[in-house]
Amino acid sequence: MSATLTASLNPASSPDVAQRAELSAIDASTKAPALYFLGSSVLWLIVGTVFALIASFKMHSPTFLGDIEWLTFGRARTLHLNAVIYGWSVNASFAVALWLMARLSRAELRHAGLLLIAAIFWNVGVTVGMVGIAIGHSTSIEWLEFPAYATPILFFAYAFVGAWAVATFRFGRSKHIYVSQWYLLAALFWFPSLYGVAQVMLVFEPTRGTVQALVNWWFAHNVLGLWFTPIGLAAIYYFLPKVLGKPINSYYLSVLGFWSLAIFYNWAGVHHLIGGPVPVWVQTAGIAASFMMVVPVIVTGLNQHLTLVGSASALKYSPTLRFIVFGGVNYTLTSLAGSLMSMRSWAEITHFTHYTVGHAHHGMYAFFTMVMFGSIYYILPRILLKEWPSAKLISLHFWATAIGITIYVVGLSLGGILQGIATNMTHGPDASIIPYLSNADVKGIIEITLPYLQVRSYSGVLITIGHLAFAVNFVWMLVQPRPVGATAPTLFRPAPDLEAAR
Amino acid sequence: MNRAPLIFLGIFFAIAFSWTGIVLTNHLGYAKLQPVFNEDEGKAFPQRLPGEAIRGKEVYRDLGCVYCHTQQVRHAGYGVDLERGWGERGSVARDYIHEKRVYLGTMRTGPDLRNVGARFAGEGGRDWHIQHFYDAQITSKGSIMPNYRFLFETRPIVGEPSPKAVQSKLPPQYQPPAGHEIVLTQRGEDLIAYLLALKDGPLGPDETSRLYVPKEEPKKEASQPEAAK
After folding, report:
1. What ipTM score was computed for the predicted complex, to two decimals?
2. Which of B59, B62, B68, B132 to mutate to probe the A interface, most A CBs <10 Å?
């Protein structure tokens, strides 16, 4: 067991020379585009974090940078969202998806130079869109704020990258299709479908009335469920068994998890419109689908948990494993919370509140972003052929972000629930049950939520420290000279001896 | 066996299914809703916004107002929007048919604005918005809404003071230096025009009866008395 663990942590020490050579060739073929995607993703992560801090501080101190029009809350918040979604998350997804696809299909990435052009176009598109928002051209359609002159660039750059990944799969030598590949293929097809339809029906040729809202949330929720979630799960399904050096617990559970996600997640987005001016039947369908999401979530969570059982001590050593497991656990938690939020009675309280913001970060950060961090810690040494320079910085990165996001989610969830209860209580006999929350006008409600908004800013500072540690380590790794001969992976502490790895 | 085509087919149908159900069905179902004529008022509702209000909605869009304000009133029995005075009735799909962009919103850091034009109307409403945009603390102490000073211009008085100057509406500590006046920019004027125009008209009673309202208690008690509690 220990031998496989060491081998998987460091393929250079694998006893099978031929396999080692093949993996090295595949890793090398992904180097240029993967490095470009990862470098841009780290850059956008820092940009997005800066806007996050600005928006968060403005929320409780509205005069902070108050007279600068392009940094007004409505724009700073939007710049944050688009930088971390289309800048950080999608760039990181591209790198991870391409690298995984090449490895799992046993295929070198061909004509990487052409792919690099698509990668550059994607980032040009994001930059154009960000500038557009800053100068007031945002569409104010949630998750689709980039102005109409930026989105075609993004669409075609995406289509190119997606086609590349599918072609890599098609020309691969592997006969077997691993569950990660299912998720990747699906995600690569779903995102452009969603994005194309949403652009046409909302931006270029808008449909009428509140049908727009349906298209909006069909898109926005599915971006989470049908793009980021499959990418994150594909990474977990690959790295978890890889780092542990043992197969995934159950093949059948992973198939069940995949198809139930594909069928139910699609319909879940309508729960963003519960109680709104859209047909009630479609709200009900959305609620049913959201609740059915319990099936893939439990199945996937169980499968991953059973894989980890007995090997949990490896968490002490492997940075990749620690980030991935943190992400995997939070996938289960945030998804179950999401199903609960779709219940009419719970949505009545939480829907228009900071609780939703907390939930969004629970999914996009505590699950997805942490999984991407873990993946990057594994991938980068293999394409650069050098190791992470500082285990201390990785440790700082993990603890700052893990504690930060936990405080963030707990704080905003509490604040949001109080905000929701207070909003729904007015004068009347029932209102005196909780005097602190009753009869509050809008200013009173703000007063109730203010401490939680401040807690959010402090947790944001903590997360920023983690991101800086990550960025420093990343740049340091790029510039340090490549060592001669085989290297040992950077772990939190010295690698385990024989029985420790069990 | 190569299962890739089968997997792809499943992937394709999954998304085609939800697109058909959520998007296409509703697009065909009610995107063509028409205004209804109201006998009492002698007009068809909903009414179109006047031109300056439509321009104002563009300002609403570019400043991202939607991230703190909803434009959808919940129905009686679901939340207390009506008790808060955010509308006389819940919003229905027909209210939005003339809007090129629908900003329902998902967050209520501030109040719902669907009927803000009914709460703040006329000259008094305009003055309130001017104070509120210049510094929200003037009208709403403790608010966390940012200032929108960039919707105003402080400029030296050349010749006669402008009849459109607004500093007389602001408290003493906000007065401009001597020889200067404060005016709204065109964007500021438009945004206020939009907010003054935001108000849903009367629609037929059949409109609300088709919407979800939680079942009243008696029914529950009749079928399953104490056991349910």
Report:
1. 0.90
2. B62
